[in-house]
Design a protein that fits this description.
With 257 residues, the protein is an alpha/beta fold. Helices cover 38% and strands 18% of the residues. The chain has one domain (11-254): Rossmann fold. α2 crosses α3 (110-120).
C-alpha cells in the first residue's frame, strides 16, 4: 500500500540479540514525549501487516513493528517457538534497541505473545491492547481457526492477500502450521487473568477466525479491561478499519490510569 505523504512512512531497521537478527519498522518521532507503542503481528505474517495502521498511530507517538523470529526478515530459529518463547524474543529485541518501557498492541496470535510479554516482564509494558486475539488451549482448535480463516477471507479487503501470501511464502507453510499447533497448547486465558495493567480488548464484528465465545472468555478473565467492537470489520481490523482502530487505541493510551 502506498503511504500517504501526510503520514510518517515507516523506516526499516535492524537489531541483533544473541543469534537472532531482528528486522523491524519504526515510524514517528523517536524523541517524542509520548511512550512508544510496539505492534506485534499475528501468525505467519510480518511487520508489513501493519502498513495501514502504523503510519496513522505514528502521528501521536513512536511506533515500532518487529518481525518475530521465523517470520518476515528476522532470523529463522531452529525449531518452532511457542507464545512464551516468542514473548521472550520480543523482550530481547526491546532490550537490544533500548526500549525500556512501551505500550504493546498484539493482533491475533500476536495477542497471546503480547500478553505473555506483559506477564513475564510487567515493568516493560505500560498498557496492553489485544485485537482479535486468539486464546490458545481454551479456545477454538487450530483446524477450527483454519476453517474460520477461509470464511474470513471473503470478508477482508482483496488488497490484504498479496501481503499475507508474500509473508506466508517467506515463513514457509511448515512453520506457519507448526507454530499454530504449538501455540494452541498455551493458556492465554490464565496469562491474561494474572495481568493488572490497563487493558483494551478489540474485536471486529465480522471476525470469523476468533469465535465470539473466545473473546468473551478473554473479557471474563480480565473484568477490569475495556472492550470495543468495531463494526464492518473482519479479523484484520487494522487493515479494513485502520482509522477507527487508531482512534480507539489513541483514546485508550492517552487516558490516565
Amino acid at each position: 500500500m502506498p503511504y500517504d505523504k501526510q503520514y510518517p512512512a515507516p523506516r526499516h531497521a535492524w537489531a541483533t540479540s544473541g543469534a537472532i537478527r531482528f528486522h523491524y519498522r519504526v515510524a514517528g518521532d523517536a524523541h517524542a514525549d509520548q511512550l512508544p507503542l510496539v505492534l506485534v503481528h499475528g501468525l505467519g505474517v510480518s511487520s508489513a501487516y501493519w502498513a495501514r495502521l502504523q503510519p496513522l498511530l505514528a502521528l501521536r507517538r513512536p511506533v515500532y513493528a518487529p518481525d518475530l523470529p521465523g517470520f518476515g526478515r528476522t532470523t529463522r530459529p531452529h525449531g518452532l517457538l511457542n507464545t512464551t518463547a516468542l514473548a521472550r524474543a520480543l523482550a530481547d529485541w526491546m532490550r537490544a534497541i533500548g526500549l525500556t518501557q512501551a505500550h504493546v498492541l498484539g493482533h491475533s496470535l500476536g495477542g497471546p505473545v503480547a500478553a505473555e510479554l506483559a506477564g513475564h516482564d510487567p515493568g516493560r509494558v505500560s498498557r496492553l491492547v489485544l485485537v482479535g486475539a486468539t486464546i490458545g488451549t481454551r479456545g477454538a482448535s487450530a483446524p477450527h481457526q483454519t476453517l474460520g480463516l477461509l470464511r474470513d477471507s471473503i470478508r477482508e479487503s482483496p488488497s490484504l492477500f498479496p501481503v499475507i501470501m508474500r509473508d506466508y511464502r517467506r515463513a514457509g507453510i511448515r512453520r506457519v502450521i507448526g507454530t499454530d499447533i504449538i501455540a494452541n497448547d498455551d493458556d492465554t486465558i490464565a496469562t491474561v487473568a494474572r495481568l493488572t495493567l490497563p487493558l483494551l480488548i478489540v474485536r471486529g464484528d465480522r471476525d470469523a477466525v476468533v469465535p465470539p465465545r473466545d473473546t468473551q472468555r478473554l473479557r471474563t478473565a480480565a473484568p477490569h479491561a475495556s472492550f470495543l467492537r468495531i463494526e464492518r470489520a473482519a479479523h484484520a481490523v487494522h487493515w479494513s478499519r485502520p482509522h477507527a482502530l487508531t482512534a480507539a487505541v489513541n483514546a485508550f493510551l492517552d487516558t490516565e490510569a
